[in-house]
Amino acid sequence: MLLRGIISNPLPSLHLKTPLRLRNFTATITNKYSISDEDLESRGFLLRRTFSDLNLNHLNSIFVAVGFPKRDPEKIKVALENTNSLLWVEHKKSQKPVAFARATGDNVFNAIIWDVVVDPSYQGIGLGKAVMERLVEELLEKGIVNIALYSEPRVLGFYRPLGFVADPDGIRGMVYSRKQRKKK
Ligand SMILES: CC(C)(COP(=O)(O)OP(=O)(O)OC[C@H]1O[C@@H](n2cnc3c(N)ncnc32)[C@H](O)[C@@H]1OP(=O)(O)O)[C@@H](O)C(=O)NCCC(=O)NCCS
């Protein structure tokens, strides 16, 4: 089992998710982004890489709006403090977050990407891709080559063009399941 990592904040439908790992991605992504920082800014969006100005209640609202469970903001804060890389997009006018993604890991070999979300009102305009491209590049720049995430089946098509493959070389992800354990 080569998928190194555990689910720190599983979604309710965890059993439906497929583990994805990044493959041969460096050449694809380091050349250029699908949308430049300047273009994003001209469209009214700022890229942010720390959570000091991130309103956690607003972030929580996006989680809830996309169907993630609502979380204790204090716990979100702890999670973000223990996050190695994060990126969010601020809507300049409202100063609210509209897109977010983060990665945890050991900062050397392995990273797992979590909480990739775009506010439903801002989906479909390239923000999810913009955030993912930059997050992955940041990890690759650190020399991290084992980059994994868990994908809902309906989102596989979003991650694949970004370089992620499901079950690479037949490797399957496993997650701890309390339900499964109780059955024994
Ligand atoms: C999945 C999500 C992050 C995508 O963000 P987005 O900003 O709407 O996506 P983008 O506009 O950046 O789309 C980038 C590309 O992916 C494609 N795409 C977006 N969502 C897709 C999906 N669910 N399935 C297949 N392709 C998808 C777009 O058509 C676009 O293609 P193009 O580059 O050829 O034009 C966003 O829809 C979201 O927050 N969904 C709810 C939360 C969620 O499911 N997160 C993932 C948890 S596993």
From TrEMBL:
<dbReference type="InterPro" id="IPR045039">
    <property type="entry name" value="NSI-like"/>
</dbReference>
<dbReference type="Pfam" id="PF00583">
    <property type="entry name" value="Acetyltransf_1"/>
</dbReference>
<dbReference type="InterPro" id="IPR000182">
    <property type="entry name" value="GNAT_dom"/>
</dbReference>
<dbReference type="GO" id="GO:0005737">
    <property type="term" value="C:cytoplasm"/>
</dbReference>
<keyword id="KW-0808">Transferase</keyword>
<dbReference type="GO" id="GO:0030187">
    <property type="term" value="P:melatonin biosynthetic process"/>
</dbReference>
<dbReference type="GO" id="GO:0005634">
    <property type="term" value="C:nucleus"/>
</dbReference>
<keyword id="KW-0012">Acyltransferase</keyword>
<dbReference type="InterPro" id="IPR016181">
    <property type="entry name" value="Acyl_CoA_acyltransferase"/>
</dbReference>
<dbReference type="GO" id="GO:0008080">
    <property type="term" value="F:N-acetyltransferase activity"/>
</dbReference>
<comment type="similarity">
    <text>Belongs to the acetyltransferase family.</text>
</comment>
<protein>
    <recommendedName>
        <fullName>N-acetyltransferase domain-containing protein</fullName>
    </recommendedName>
</protein>
<dbReference type="GO" id="GO:0009507">
    <property type="term" value="C:chloroplast"/>
</dbReference>
<feature type="domain" description="N-acetyltransferase">
    <location>
        <begin position="46"/>
        <end position="182"/>
    </location>
</feature>
<dbReference type="GO" id="GO:0004059">
    <property type="term" value="F:aralkylamine N-acetyltransferase activity"/>
</dbReference>
